[in-house]
Amino acid sequence: MDNLVIRKYVNGDFTDVIKLLKDRFNISNNIKSIDDNINSFGIVALLDKKIVGYIRIDKLNNPFKNNYYYFLSYVCVDSNYQNVGIATKMLEFIFNKAKDANVSYIELTSRSSREAANRLYLKNGFIIRDTNVFRKEI
Q1: H/E stretch holding 5
Q2: For burial by CB atoms within 10 Å, which of 50, 72, 104, 128 has the most?
Q3: CATH code at position 9
Q4: Model pTM?
């Protein structure tokens, strides 16, 4: 994996990231941009200059604990490149960014049916919290 590069998402990555998200998450064609800001950014994994992975990171404030945390979403690797360590390298990149950004912890959600993803998270030090995730569509 000497030719694997993990870096921050840039606007020029948009088309390839959308293709990846559509494949892995059945994302709509209506997305016009992926906007980054001071508290939200994405990272990509490139293998031989081809985007093969993506993770969205939001830095959030927990005012009751007086700290910041990262919330990860859209964690994905191209199905042709899974189980070779790409997601682990992307998580390591995020762990290092979190230390530099004074982040106290990292959270994400994952359906129980995503067994391989859940093994990845446990292998990388995440713990399963006793919680339910609720959503109300508006």
Answers
A1: strand 4-8
A2: 72
A3: 3.40.630.30
A4: 0.90
Q: How do strand 50-62 and strand 40-47 relate by DSSP bridges?
A: antiparallel
* Token couple for 48: 């031989």
Domain tally, the chain: 1
134 within a domain of the structure (yes/no): no
Whole-number pLDDT of residue 30: 66
Per residue in 66-87, pLDDT tens?
A: 999 999 999 999 999 999 999 9
**Beta-bridge mates of residue 78:** none
The parent domain of residue 117 ranges over 4-123
Q: Is the pLDDT of residue 61 over 90?
A: yes
Q: Distance between CA 102 and CA 60 in Å, rounded? A: 11
Residue 128 in domain = no
Distances (CA, A) of 54 to 24, 85, 91, 138: 10, 13, 10, 27
Q: Do 107 and 70 touch, CB atoms closer than 8 A?
A: yes
